[in-house]
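Annex B, item 7. Sequence and structure tokens for protein A, then protein B.
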Amino acid sequence: MKKPKILLAEDDMNLGNLLSDYLKAKGFDTVLAKNGDEAFTFFAKGGFQLCLLDVMMPIKDGFTVAKEIRKVNETIPIIFLTAKSMKEDTLQGFSSGADDYITKPFSMEELLARINAVLRRYIPQQTEELATTFTIGSYQFDYQRRILSNSGNEHKLTSKENELLRLLCLNQGKMLERTFALKAIWEDDNYFNARSMDVYIAKLRKLLQEDSRIEIMNVHGRGFRFFVHE
């Protein structure tokens, strides 16, 4: 059985390494981020089953990261780690999309119990996230082989076309946020990468144009919606 993958964001590297080593010893595949921006970049790579976010982090705090994560994934469990215990902060944490909230200092056993309790409530989407073949209207898309085929004709996709088309397929009918796609594929959401992504979107539209039911719609300032109309 595949190990649950946890994103751990903690700017205190001593505590972060301690927690990471403990979770790995307990059977979790753990990725440690040292600030909020790095945490979202790692998250955009996909495959996580739970996020542990320290509230007070440089660049982006945990609340901000949680809100960004919730824009692209409404169901993944999020647990906040915080040194604060004020009621207002707890409420802010839940309004940011938290499933649970644990106040430092805490025992490793308490953290493990919270993680297991949240994971039991979570209906995992691993099957969907691990999908490698997709039917897109009259097209077949093989992510592993980087092949897009239609009516017996096969087209070999570039690595960027391949990754972008898979993200569109996984988010079919939903919003694919520009920032999420850029960090997942280009690892940086700067202006030049954004322009590059627009070029690849145009290429995918051209590759899929033989089926008029397929639409990749721009949503100004936000991202893209991918539809296969009936």
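Protein B:
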Amino acid sequence: MSDGSTESKPGHHLAETPAKQSHLERRRWPRQSDTQAASRPAAPPALKPLCFSTRELAPAEQFLAWRAHMAPLVEVTLPDGKSLDDGFLADQTAWHLGNLLIVQQRVPAHSYTRSRAMLRLSPIDHWYVELLRGGRAWTEVDRRVAESGPGNFAFRSLGYPYRGRTTESDAILLFMPYDLLADNAGILEAANNSILSGNLAKLLANHVHGVEESLDNLTAEELPRLVHTIRDMVVACVSASVPSTTATLSNMSVMERAHRYIHSNLYSDDLTPDAICRELGISRTRLYQLFGASGGVLNYIRKRRLLAAYADLSDPTNNKPISEIAEAAGFDLAANFTRAFSHEFGFSPREIRKAATAERPVSPVAPLERSRGETFGDWLNTLGN
């Protein structure tokens, strides 16, 4: 508190200090000129949202439209006492980040079921994270019910049957393909239908909200790093929330069993369509149907082996010769491996190894944009392919 005396030199000295610091900062950290900033071309936004709404439909048609829209994922039903004439105002906006779908969704109360019959026919076995911002949901897997509310993350696998109900809700959903998290599959399956909580979940929620605000400005170069960051954060949250009970293998979808078998035998010479069919107890026709969105089961295996080769070459501690890595990936000729690798990632094997050695890792450049279809179901089916 000041007494109005003339003892003001310390204050006078402090008033001069910022001016001197400002002068020094300008000399040490010169600002980029407007001309320099303008000369650097800005990368165009990479994402175009897929929007769906029932608001323009007649009330009696709204729920039917929503049910058809969600049919590739779940079967939905109205709550008791509700009729089609009551209307069903639902909004959904989806963003496809290559190996991640981010979905913003507002829906009225309803029930949902992903049945065993649906799993037998569905190629979808993604991991699924739901962050509720409003409303409550109750989901049952293997007779265990998980209740989620505002600020909670619910984590589950689409490779297992489940059913549940939700009140009117506002949520953001993350869909990640099985392969993106295959290295942590055991931990994740043990946490199926868990509610993620704690400090790590709060950090993930803050990160997801930040990403959500930037979706319409993200560039293609930023997407792989962003997806990997979210993946790592999800794994960290799930690892801290693993329950003592686990989902049973008998309830696992055919697609998830196929993925598990392929990843467990990725480098085996005996990994063939016939061997996979015998393991799963299905026909070759059914196997090809399951992997149709991946261009066939052999193409899927080839891509997984190339991804493993990319990981080896990106590891600065891995000293295996490129020829040995190529052979493990199923290529007898180095030229064929280089051609396939370069087409898949946009860089040659030598370029990836050189960048890793220099500790300047590069992100894969995706091939020319593939058609993802025009519906939410199409995007789910092609996620990660």
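Comment on protein B: The radius of gyration is 26 Å.
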